[in-house]
Design a protein that fits this description.
Layout (H helix, E strand, L loop, with lengths): L3 E4 L8 H15 L6 H8 L6 H8 L3 H18 L10 H8 L4 E5 L4 H11 L7 E3 L12 H10 L6 E5 L2 H9 L4 E3 L15 E2 L15
Parallel strand pairs: 1-2, 1-4, 2-3, 4-5, 5-6
Helix pairs in contact: 1-4, 3-4
Length: 214
């Protein structure tokens, strides 16, 4: 029986992934490089390449890469000081599940940024556990983030359902033995989700796998 739902954060609960991409795209353009959505969706969000690696593949010099990352990160942190839009049906779905299941977040973002996003969006009170980049040695697609969440909750993989928006997140949950529902966004919809338990249009689609009368 499912006792907990573990959620990715960026691009699934909050539209922060779009903000991050748009800021990255804008800074790349300032340096004369065109960064397209499909490339970012496949290489960065799907294959877990870092911005530095993407910039290097575009032919940027090391000094340019350092400046690009510095500018983008500064602008993103400033953007997080303002409310980030929730993805469709997130609050309604969390309200339905709160008190009936344990809820957690498993993300590759630093805790400082997650706390900032959740505080400004009003999501802070929903989660029993939040696993961030700061809590693990290996990030997604490695299973450690989800294995850490299982340990914190004291649950077995079959007692948990994961919800992700990307191929690397799906791979992480699957490697930890957790069934995973995927809710792609406009950046990750180009990816392949062959290991998904199910693919849904928005997060409310999770409910039918938890309630027999849904």
């Amino acid at each position: 029986m499912i006792q907990a739902i573990l959620w990715d954060n960026d691009g699934l609960l909050l539209d922060s992934e779009s903000v991050f991409f748009e800021l990255t795209q804008a800074v790349f353009a300032e340096f004369g490089f065109e960064l397209k959505e499909e490339y970012w969706g496949v290489e960065y969000l799907g294959k877990a390449k870092r911005t530095r690696q993407v910039a290097h593949e575009f032919g940027m010099r090391p000094d340019q890469i350092d400046r690009v990352i510095e500018l983008r990160d500064g602008r993103f942190l400033e953007a997080l000081r303002h409310p980030i839009a929730l993805r469709p049906k997130v609050r309604e779905t969390l309200d339905t599940l709160a008190g009936r299941f344990k809820l957690g977040v498993v993300t590759g973002s630093p805790r400082e940024k997650i706390e900032l996003m959740h505080r400004s969006s009003g999501l802070g009170g929903y989660f029993d556990v939040v696993i961030t980049h700061d809590d693990v040695n290996e990030t997604k697609p490695h299973p450690e983030p989800y294995s850490t969440a299982l340990e914190k909750l004291g649950l077995e993989p079959e007692e948990v359902l994961a919800v992700e928006d990307s191929e690397r997140g799906l791979a992480s949950a699957h490697a930890a033995g957790i069934p995973c529902i995927v809710v792609p966004n406009h950046l990750t919809q180009v990816q392949k989700f062959e290991q998904a338990y199910a693919i849904e249009e928005d997060v409310s689609g999770v409910l039918k796998y938890l309630f027999n009368d849904s």
